[in-house]
């Protein structure tokens, strides 16, 4: 059994855009804020210093007003194809992420890989993200209400 | 062990090894009943892992959906800008 596989999550997506543009959209703050985060969430108090040793901090505010502090520290940056960072809430590191951008005939393949140091860290995030799931359900209820009453 | 390994193209010792790993991961518990070692699947950790990974994946899938749309908008804007700046 591959222990690392138990501790990691990988997501990939092919995007119809040139790699340099995807790099910009994913690493420059004025672009990041336009797409980053689950539906119904906003990023506030954003600071961004995209260099090795620099950090990206922001607070994700959920639809019910709950605030989730986020803190990323960059460890490796290889434009325009790859960067690696530690991510947490400012007090603890939850996981290490590697994002790679690969040129493809149709555009760019984006791959995101999160590696959790241990089951304990993963469990803690389960609880935090459980809260996000709650927020998402809240939003689903709101959406239903809007569809039914405000058409 | 013979019974458990039958449906699989795997030797009994290999099955034992896998069961030990599952046990160590807390995914099965092994009881004792005379010469049987009944294994019980502890599904909770598996569910947790699956739920958490599903949530995380959903988080990213939503963000990537929006990144994709955003990039299409950006490219369309750049095209228009290109048309406007006459040669």
Explained architecture:
The complex is a heterodimer of chains A (151) and B (87). Chain A has 151 residues and is an alpha+beta fold. Chain A has a single domain, classed as Alpha-D-Glucose-1,6-Bisphosphate, Chain A, domain 4. Chain A has helices at 3-6, 19-27, 29-35, 119-149; strands at 8-15, 42-48, 55-61, 67-78, 82-88, 93-104, 107-115. A seven-stranded antiparallel beta sheet of chain A has the order 1-7-6-5-4-3-2. In chain A, helix 2 packs across helix 3. Chain A is globular. The mean pLDDT of chain A is 83. Chain B has two domains: 2-41, no CATH class; 44-87. In chain B, strands 1-2 form a two-stranded antiparallel ribbon. The mean pLDDT of chain B is 73. Classes of the chains: A alpha+beta (151), B mainly alpha (87). The interface between A and B is medium-sized, with 30 and 28 residues.
What would a concise description of this structure say?
Chain A is built from four helices and seven strands; from the N terminus they run αβααββββββα. Chain A is an alpha+beta fold.
């Amino acid at each position: 059994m591959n222990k690392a596989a138990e501790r990691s999550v990988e997501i990939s997506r092919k995007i119809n855009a040139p790699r340099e543009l995807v790099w910009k959209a994913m690493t420059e703050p004025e672009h990041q804020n336009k797409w980053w985060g689950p539906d119904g969430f906003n990023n506030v108090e954003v600071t961004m210093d995209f260099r090795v040793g620099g950090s990206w901090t922001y607070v994700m505010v959920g639809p019910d007003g709950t605030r989730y502090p986020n803190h990323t520290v960059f460890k490796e940056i290889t434009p325009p194809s790859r960067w690696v960072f530690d991510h947490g809430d400012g007090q603890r590191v939850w996981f290490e992420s590697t994002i790679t951008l690969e040129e493809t005939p149709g555009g760019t393949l984006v791959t995101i890989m999160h590696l959790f140091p241990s089951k304990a860290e993963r469990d803690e995030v389960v609880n935090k993200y459980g809260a996000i799931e709650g927020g998402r359900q809240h939003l689903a209820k709101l959406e239903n209400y809007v569809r039914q009453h405000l058409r | 062990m013979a019974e458990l390994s039958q449906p699989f193209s795997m030797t009994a010792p290999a099955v034992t090894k896998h069961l030990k790993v599952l046990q160590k991961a807390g995914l099965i518990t092994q009881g004792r009943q005379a010469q049987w070692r009944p294994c019980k699947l502890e599904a909770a950790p598996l569910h947790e892992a699956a739920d958490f990974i599903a949530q995380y994946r959903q988080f990213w899938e939503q963000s990537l959906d929006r990144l994709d749309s955003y990039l299409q908008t950006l490219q369309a804007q750049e095209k228009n800008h290109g048309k406007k700046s006459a040669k």
